[in-house]
Design a protein that fits this description.
The protein has 263 residues and is of the alpha+beta class. 21% of the residues lie in helices and 36% in strands. The strands form two sheets. It has a six-stranded mixed sheet with strand order 3-4-2-1-12-11. The chain has a six-stranded mixed sheet with strand order 5-6-7-8-10-9. Helix 1 crosses helix 2 and helix 3 packs parallel to helix 4. The radius of gyration is 19 Å and the shape is globular. The C terminus is likely disordered.
């Protein structure tokens, strides 16, 4: 049977809300409203003076009783700023590196999450503001060190984050040529995520690889979400199809039946 997983991607704007209030607990409450299993965060501050030196990745994770993996795309002395993945499921870091950038430094974080017999590869990123820069970053993510090195016949793959790219952009089209946009796979009409008070642009995306269905997908626009950050979170309910190898492992033939494996 497929495994159901709820995944959320959310640009938290360093936990500064549209009311200019710094409040990581409020971000945690917005996430709690969605009840996700896996969370991809962007614009997370760790040790930055502007946000009181707090470790936002760990604070939000503790609020949700989860573990966090954090990668600083920007690292200046003790101040760090970047992406994070939070989950209560078993998780291991696979890779965390910079992406080619011409403006503000950007990076990507790759973790493997254990879901029963399945290994879900989750890559979170936050692409740049310039079109040419985003193309270089998308090309790097599609290369052999990242998505291009994953055999989708053996792994389930999700790419999530604030891509700063609408559907007509070159970076979006490059990624959509290899993965599928979760919003387009659901029955609901695609909705914008930015800015949170009056959403006009669909900048935040979840892309899925082979063997992943999308049961539902929605932009979470509660009153709390509209004030907690300048982006709205995107929640996707995924259905992970088991690998053939996992199916065969679970089959225990009756003694003497000679039952063949599933075709």
């Amino acid at each position: 049977m497929p495994r159901a997983i709820r995944l959320l991607t959310y640009n938290v704007h360093s936990c500064f809300g549209t009311d200019r209030r710094l409040d990581p607990a409020r971000i945690g409450e917005v996430i709690r409203e969605c009840a996700p299993d896996i969370i991809a965060l962007q614009e997370v501050d760790v040790g930055r003076a502007r946000s009181g030196g707090m470790d936002q990745a760990q604070m939000i994770a503790a609020h949700l009783r989860m573990e966090a993996q954090f990668h600083p795309a920007l690292h200046l002395e003790e101040e760090r700023y970047g992406d994070a993945v939070l989950t209560a499921l078993p998780m291991r870091l696979v890779k965390a590196e910079a992406l080619p950038s011409s403006g503000e430094p950007r990076g990507a974080l790759w973790v493997e999450v254990d879901i029963g017999h399945l290994k879900l590869q989750v890559i979170v990123t936050h692409l740049g503001l310039r079109g040419a820069e985003r193309i270089r970053q998308a090309t790097a993510l599609l290369g052999p060190g990242w998505l291009g090195g994953i055999r989708q016949s053996e792994s389930r793959v999700v790419l999530a984050g604030d891509l700063n790219a609408v559907a007509r952009s070159s970076a979006y089209r490059a990624l959509a040529g290899h993965l599928r946009d979760a919003q387009l796979l659901s029955n609901a009409r695609p909705r914008p995520t930015f800015p949170s008070r009056l959403p006009l642009l669909r900048l935040d995306h979840v892309f899925v690889g082979d063997g992943i269905g999308v049961k539902a997908c929605r932009v979470h626009d509660s009153p709390l979400a509209r004030s907690a950050s300048d982006h709205l979170p995107l929640l996707v309910e995924l259905e992970l199809q088991p690998h053939r190898r996992s199916i065969e492992k679970d089959i225990v033939p009756t003694y003497g039946s000679g039952a063949p494996p599933l075709p």
